[in-house]
Amino acid sequence: MAPMSLKHETGPVRRQQIIDAARKLIILKGSEHVTIKGLAHEVGISEAAIYRHFNGKRDVMLLLVDDVGANLLNDIKDSGSKKGRDVIDRLNHILNRHISAIEQRRGVSFQVIAEIISLGDRGLNARVADIVDRYIARLKTLLEEGIGTGELRKDLNAEATAVLIFGLTQGVVNLWALNNYGFDLKKRYNTLWSTLRQTITGDGAGYVMKESKPK
Question: pLDDT, tens digit, for every residue of 182-209?
């Protein structure tokens, strides 16, 4: 049994501790182990103390989704807004930040997203969908800038490519987790980035083309 926390924390601090505990339980054991009892044990407080901050597990998960979304969107906002740098360089920096954070915290954002989707809760899924849509929209804006400057192929479909980038990142994280984090994530990323870069700049054979409009 975990020792009870004797230190009285403020509301925001305690809520963040509970959110961090939910994140940890998802990564280590899966979303089915995120229970009020499990959260109380992880934080070192009573179950009643959890209910002083949240109505139940669903409220915890909603705030966790928002927390994950903020981290994910901040990564792309901070890197994508660095004017004066090539779009390719900024895109690589965004993905590198994701991979570095994933390695340090074992796929936190992307793995949490996958676990929450698996719960089948429409409200939670809608919240996740909104975050993913905003993430893809920011990637699309960056890609459109690259198309406009000529760094990326003129016939590149920015929206489809943004979805592809999200899917590649989500996929490699899921694969890494399924393999018990056993392969070199950075090495796998470098291979994917090389292929992606060739695709979107036109240095390689394959690329995502814009849909042709019917005549």
Answer: 888 888 888 989 999 999 998 754 444 3
CATH superfamily name and code, 1-54: Homeodomain-like (1.10.10.60)
- Kindly state the tokens that stand for 67: 């927390």
CATH architecture observed for domain 57-201: Orthogonal Bundle (1.10)
What would the pLDDT profile of 86-109 be if each residue is shown by its tens digit? 999 999 988 888 888 777 765 567
Domain range list for the chain: 1-54, 57-201
